[in-house]
Design brief:
Layout lengths: L2 H11 L4 E5 L3 H16 L4 E5 L3 E4 L2 E2 L6 H10 L4 E5 L10 H14 L4 E7 L13 E4 L5 H17 L3 E2 L3 H10 L5 H12 L4 E2 L4 H12 L5 E4 L12 H9 L6 H6 L6 E6 L5 H11 L4 E4 L1 H6 L5 H14 L3 E5 L13 H16 L4 E7 L7 H4 L6 E5 L4 H14 L9 H7 L5 H17 L6 H9 L4 H4 L1 H11 L4 E2 L7
Parallel strand pairs: 1-6, 1-7, 2-5, 5-6, 8-9, 11-14, 11-15, 12-13, 13-14, 15-16
Antiparallel strand pairs: 2-3, 3-4, 10-12
Helix pairs in contact: 3-4, 5-6, 5-7, 7-8, 13-14, 16-17, 16-18, 18-19
């Protein structure tokens, strides 16, 4: 049962005659109120007022009732048990003391009667003089069961139209999860756009639903929607991290909740630059079939969208509205730190800590950090993140995997390369450095109109100094910090 319905029921049972319901979903709420009217009043007497048509009773128009004061007078004069649903009234209350007085009269007259007034509005504005009399209920977005029914109807209609539905049970659940965070109308449009004109329904169409969530994010300048087409096969090594992610692949499913599992909060990956922290964040979204959004902390502090703390808070609320999703905060220490002295930083830190502890939306935080020592201890304490992983420079075996991945991705014949030898001579090279060497070598080969060969790579290796050499002291410091504080992302330790 939707919790909002229970809240409305509790208000009615307590004798609360006026309830404001905050939501964009008028049609959906009207459907709930019709059922509620039958349950509580044993009748279907529902009056509905809107500014364009005026007052209607059970869909029959009442003449000369466009003026809200007139419509409220009709409600006051009614002698029957009824629900009175007013849709466009809240905006008029800002500049009409007369209407405010009329609603106060309704409160006094309806109390201890079987008449109830519902104010439907997309915002929670109420004049101060009415806030004591009126209950305000933020109507929840559709729950899993509602969205599951919607998805089932769509798939059934596709099959009746002769379209193949090639989805496993888990993939169907992924389609339901994908529209969580949308209104029922938004979910309907997302399915329409995804399925329309298709000859078969397959899991790849879920990306179109993720694009619908992108539309909700566009209003926030500091949030960016990403479409990474990356899988675990694109990440060399890091077997412990991969195993952790695989075991949580169904973390946001209905089955996980029924099993008694809490929703995962997030992970913090820290370690050496260029070793796969950002790549891991992108892969989470692909692996779990969730949309990925990146928060740019530099834009948060730039001021282009408003005061930093207000922008940050608004962005997290926006993320709540598009859940489930992955929120990637890259180099989190640059924006959320206790080493900064300005007031905005401390307020952002405080808000973020509270949000991480209290939020109930299915948002998974994928945070990365290079300078873990800059992060406040309270952010790192157990319970904020599900796990803190340390990603070190790749081991010899992992470097072999990295060479294999990047050479194969660029259509090179692996039989022409001594992969173990390449891995051996690149000790202390990061994954991104190895990738860039291969790219540089391919440019050299391309300029000479030939294929890449090992000699191209050897020349570049000989003329390059890895970051681990120039930043040796900093890497030692990071390794020392992580020794007893983080879980190694790799089992292998042979460098």
């Amino acid at each position: 049962m939707n919790q909002s319905i229970n809240q409305i029921k509790d208000s009615l049972l307590a004798g609360q005659p006026i309830v404001q319901i905050v939501s964009f979903e008028e049609k959906r709420i009207e459907g709930f109120l019709k059922k509620l009217c039958q349950q509580t009043l044993k009748t279907l007497n529902i009056y509905t007022w809107e500014s364009h048509n005026g007052l209607s009773r059970n869909d029959s128009m009442i003449p000369d009732s466009k003026e809200p004061a007139v419509a409220l007078d009709i409600a006051l004069a009614a002698n029957e048990a009824a629900f009175f649903v007013f849709k466009d009234l809240n905006s008029r209350l800002r500049h009409s003391p007369g209407l405010i007085r009329k609603i106060r009269e309704c409160y006094l007259h309806f109390k201890n009667s079987k008449k109830f007034l519902f104010l439907l509005s997309p915002d929670d504005y109420l004049p101060t003089t009415l806030k004591k009399e009126i209950d305000i209920i933020n109507f929840e977005l559709p729950d899993y069961e509602e969205l599951e029914n919607l998805c089932a109807k769509f798939l059934e209609s596709m099959e009746k139209a002769g379209i193949q539905v090639q989805l496993s049970g888990e993939e169907k659940r992924n389609f339901v999860t994908a529209v969580q965070g949308l209104t029922l109308d938004e979910a309907y449009k997302a399915y329409m756009k995804s399925f329309q004109g298709q000859q078969r329904i397959h899991i790849g169409l879920i990306e179109k639903i993720h694009l619908e969530k992108k539309q909700l994010i566009l209003k926030e300048n500091v949030l960016e929607f990403l479409s990474p087409a990356l899988t675990l096969a694109d990440m060399g090594g890091l077997d412990k991290l991969k195993d952790w992610l695989m075991k949580r692949k169904k973390a946001f499913s209905k089955e996980a909740r029924e099993f008694g599992l809490d929703k995962p909060k997030g992970i913090l990956t820290m370690g050496v630059t260029g070793c796969g922290k950002s790549l891991a964040s992108k892969i989470i979204a692909t692996l779990w079939n969730l949309p990925l959004f990146r928060m740019d902390m530099n834009l948060v502090y730039s001021g282009i969208a408003g005061a930093p703390e207000e922008v940050f808070a608004r962005s997290l609320k926006t993320m709540d509205s598009v859940a489930p999703a992955v929120l990637w905060i890259d180099e989190i220490e640059s924006g959320i730190s206790d080493k900064q002295t300005d007031g905005s930083s401390s307020r952002i830190l405080g808000y973020f800590l509270t949000w991480m502890q209290e939020h109930t939306s299915e948002i998974f935080i994928a945070a990365t950090a290079n300078r873990i020592d800059l992060l406040p201890a309270e952010l790192l304490r157990r319970g904020r993140f599900d796990q803190i992983f340390f990603i070190d420079l790749p081991t010899r075996k992992e470097r072999e995997e990295i060479f294999t991945i990047h050479l194969t991705k660029r259509d090179n014949d692996l039989s022409q390369y001594n992969i173990p030898q390449l891995a051996q001579i690149t000790k202390n090279w990061s994954g991104s450095e190895i990738e860039q060497v291969i790219i540089s070598g391919m440019y050299e080969a391309f300029a000479e109109n030939r294929k890449l060969n090992e000699d191209d790579l050897f020349v570049i290796f000989g003329n390059s100094v890895p970051l681990a050499t120039t930043m040796e002291e900093q890497i030692k410091k990071v390794r020392s910090w992580a020794h007893n504080r983080a879980v190694r992302a790799s089992t292998d330790k042979e460098y």
